[in-house]
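subagent[fold] <- orchestrator: predict structure for attached chain, return tokens only, no commentary.
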Amino acid sequence: MVLSDGGPDAGPDTGQVWGEPEAAPAKVNLYLHVTGRRADGYHLLDSLVVFAGAADRVYAAPAGALSLRLAGPEGAALAAEPDNLVLRAARLLAAEAGIPATGALRLEKHLPVASGIGGGSADAAAALRLLDRAWGLDLGAARLRGLAARLGADVPVCLASHAARMEGVGDLLSGAPALPECGIVLANPRLPLPTPAVFTARQGGFTPRATLPAAWADAAVMADALKACRNDLQAAAIGLCPAVAEVLAALEALPGCLLARMSGSGATCFALFADARAAARAGAALPAAWWRWGGGLYDPPV
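subagent[fold] -> orchestrator:
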């Protein structure tokens, strides 16, 4: 499947030379508190975000027109999208720099769509980073963050792909506690959950901002501390998609599971483990019909 702006180079990638891929790692909300609501209807959040080793990848090759080729095991789910976020990011970056948007892009999709782990946002952020280098722009972190914010609430945090605390409507980012070594399992029942529907279904009041330490000694201590927090969207997501509760129960039953919770607006759930090897073993034990992954946290390049 090729999405393009037209032109002679908007066809299949046969014979094209692709550069090094840019990783678009899965974003995981270790907790998500809805702390209030603005007058314009947008919810205010407090969330600790980490990134898992599971990732999409974005490639670029020289071409005279802008195009996007979808690949990977989850790529077909995006075929019906009229305007992929990767293309939107490319056009926005080109407009900011005052240059034409060119190049053949390939999105190798490994993360499920509409699953609460920021796949589309991570893809857009990866495209900004990749094309900023490929086009020789060097716009700088501040200008790229400004563009990221125009693409979606989760794109700024995905731009750095570092653990961070997200507040406001996703626009207020601050440092996260120092994270210990740990493993993480991600599981999705292959049922999409649109974020607006989950927020609409949410009932109840607001949850205070969490109190976080400077660091946690190990994964078990971190998991115990996070049990005092919650995901305020989890009950609403289960009401819309009961399979989320099945995934959570399966994660909690895995040997060595320290904490199981839903990420973002779902339906992907996660479980914390002592290390990446334990998480990889645990993830492999989940039903093959689900999308599942186990390993360590993402280590972004310096």
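orchestrator: received. Logging for downstream: The chain has two domains: 2-173, 178-296. The radius of gyration is 19 Å.
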